[in-house]
Amino acid sequence: MHPSDSPDSSAETALAPETDAIARPTNRSVLLFTPDDSLPPSLESHLESESGLEVSNATSTGAVLQRLEATDCLVLVADETENAGETTTASVDVLDRLRNYAPAFPVVVVTTDPDSETATELATAAHTQRWTVHVPISAHDESADLERIGQRVTDLVDHHRLDGIVSRSLAAVELTEEPLAIVAPDGTFEHVTRRYTMQFGYSPSELEGQPWQTCFSDETVSHLESTAIATVTDGWRWTGHCTGREKSGEPVPVHIRLGGLEDGSLIFVATERDGDSEQSASTDAGSEPR
């Protein structure tokens, strides 16, 4: 016998409600900085006219740090001249100082000489720092290079804003005290609230990255995979009673609400049921732990 479903578990009468619209600012402000004040021709005008960005210039590292709160992204143009060792070093130093001050601030680094030591250092920084993007340019196709810089700035700012929304949303979820878990498309827990983990005897760090099946009995897993997840994949929400499994291996009766996201992620809301409910609703409480 399978864990029993609530009357609306096969498919609710309406599709899951659409996500509420999020008001996002459409303007994007950019701070341009070149340590030796030698800005590539047309860069500022292109970013303003073609990419629709609000552009301003900084004349010193101190000015950059002071203006971060009023700016969405820094475009750092490295000097690549043969005899400008000190200025080239300054380009790397600016990024290092900024990262110590604001490790999650969006930075687009522009280099013009792929063989320079500075370009190598900044490219390495872009690989190791999440919010740093490296855009190498040449004199062969200025128009395409300028367009690429503008697109990288736009993408990075939008990604940074979305990341902030997600972080605030997760914080809000914690405050609501919902026993909620977000399962990534690969089937592992991506985020779990403390209330969700406490029901199964885990801490959040113990469950994050683990398969969602960790918290359920074998029979429940089979039922959820064949019925509930299939229902969610078709665009519906699913609710039902089933048997969870604590860290100790003991069964725990739970009521599950299950929904899905467009990228294949799953949202589990698990509410523990009392013993009386278990007698009539859960049929596999005696299953062996997985």
Automatic annotation (TrEMBL):
Residues 1-27, 35-54 are annotated as: Disordered. Residues 167-233 form the PAS domain. It comes from Natronolimnobius baerhuensis. It comes from the Archaea. This is PAS domain-containing protein. SUPFAM superfamilies: PYP-like sensor domain (PAS domain). Residues 1-12 have a biased composition (Polar residues). Pfam families: PAS_4. Residues 39-54 have a biased composition (Low complexity).
